[in-house]
Every structure is written in C-alpha cells, then in structure tokens.
Amino acid sequence: MNKPLASLSLDLDNAWSYLQIHGNEEWQSYPSYLDQLVPMFLDDMAARNLKVTVFVVGKDASLPQNRDLLRGIAESGHEIGNHSFNHLPWLDRFTAAGLRAELTEAHDAIGTATGSSTVGFRGPGFSFSAETLSVLASLGYTYDASTLPTFIGPLARAYYFRSGDLSEEERELRSKLFGSFTDIRRPNTAYRWATHDLMELPVTTIPLIRTPFHLSYLLWLAGISEKLADLYLSVALAACRATGTTPSVLIHPLDFFGGDDAPDLAFFPGMEHSGAEKRAISGHFLDRLTDAFDFTTCRAHVEASKPSRTVTL
Ligand SMILES: [Zn+2]
User: Fold this and answer.
1) What is the pLDDT, as a whole number, of residue 306?
2) Listed residue (98, 200, 84) closest to 146, CA to CA
3) How many angstroms is it from 153 CA to the middle of ligand 1?
C-alpha cells in the first residue's frame, strides 16, 4: 500500500543566528558550522532516499565561502526555501519597506548562491504577518510555511528565555517568538489565504491535541524519557491516521549536533548530549516517521494537497 504523502523541511539556522537570538555579541562575526552540517545532512537524506525542503538564510547565501555548500543542496535534488536574510524573528515589527527589502534581498542572494528560484518561505522563529504574505505574493511565491498552530509556542518562548541574557528591549522584540496564542485557531494542514494568492503549509502539530511533534520537541521529551518520547510520537502518528492528516515535519540543525560538534552553543537546551547520541535518537524518530509517511518537499506536498479551504487573516 502506498504511504500518504507528507513533507519534511530543515531550517538551516546557523551558529550565528542562535547566538544572536540569545543576545550573545559573538554572532557579529558570523560563526558558521555549515561546512560540517551540510555534508552530514546530505549524506543522511541520501541514505534515506529523501528529497526535502531546506530553508536557507540569505546572509549565509551571500557569503562566498558558503556558495558551493548551498548549491550542493539544490544539486542533490532538495527544494530550496527562503528563511529571510538576517534571521530576525520579529518580522511582524518591520516596516513594510523594511520587510520587502529583507525578503527580496534573501530571495536574490539565495537564488544566486543555489541557482534555484525559491517559491516557499518560512519566517524565523515562526514570525508571521499579513505584510509578509503581501511581499511573498508579489515575489511570485506559492506558499508560506511560517505558522505553528499550537498553544505551546508562548510556553516554549518562556523556556527559551530562561537561560538567555537579554535586556527588556530585547525581550520585547522577541515577544512573538515561536508564535502567538492566535496560532491555535488556524488550521493544521495546508490551506489557501483568502486575501492573497498564496497557500499556507503549517508546521503540523498533533491533530486535536495541538501540541508540537517536530524533531526538536521529540528530542526534548527524549531528554526526560525516551519511552515517553516514543509514546508521544505514537500518539501523534495515530492522531494523524485517525484524522487523515498528512503532516509537515520540521527539523533543525541542533537535532543532529551535540555539544561536541558546536561547543559555542553549549548553553542551548539539549547540548549536554553528544552529536552521536543526538543523531542516534533523531535517526530513530526519522525512521518511525518515514515508516508511516512518504516524505517529500514542502512544495510538492502543498501542490499534492490541492487545498480548497480558505482562511482569512
Ligand atoms: Zn530559523
């Protein structure tokens, strides 16, 4: 029997963007781990025979030393998406002109580096606004993938800031990081925006329960108990089957990197584990997901979904 089609995407967040969001000044020299991460990721996807979507940050695409690496992702058959230029997760605070510059600059840099014209966008930190949709539509994009329809985003934000060294102003800018409570009211699978010629592909949360099950979340649970994380994923898969939901699943670099791979990021949750430990457990979750679904790119998933439901902002 054919497995249902679903999508898998990697947000190619670099070391500097993690340092920046955490308020660590070292980000300004743009430290990078892409030369380690990208080949490892490509090998893993090839071993699983997967073609996925990689959302690339424009600043990384603009740096000559990353060109070959990023072009290699496209040449391996993966879809390239736009993940903004500066990876600032408060796009909702940008002026219209500032937002247009941010997304257009990323579009151009990513196109030049990878040789592919992007049609999909994911805002950093799930940041999202009506203006974003207007800019994407004018750039000829076909889908946005920035929403996480959960109530747990604000809780994740609280957890994330606990260890951060941020001023009041910096906290205020990050106030919508990981989404807002309104996200829970949005659908959990692909739909059309009524006001824009664009489709939305949410990062799927567990149907009915609406808690996340992207890989970072499963790893966080596994840090408490691997059995609990496995059971939780079983619930997610059963709820998807019961509701006919074909999920869009998100992965992050730190799902595959441990404290030994990126010592500068040791302060991040989960970085007390080695890279080998993380890759073993992430690989196990990916095996379970790929047993249940036939994963493809976000673009192919949106096109195959042919969503008829329209949503007004
Ligand atoms: Zn990101």
Assistant:
1) 86
2) 200
3) 15
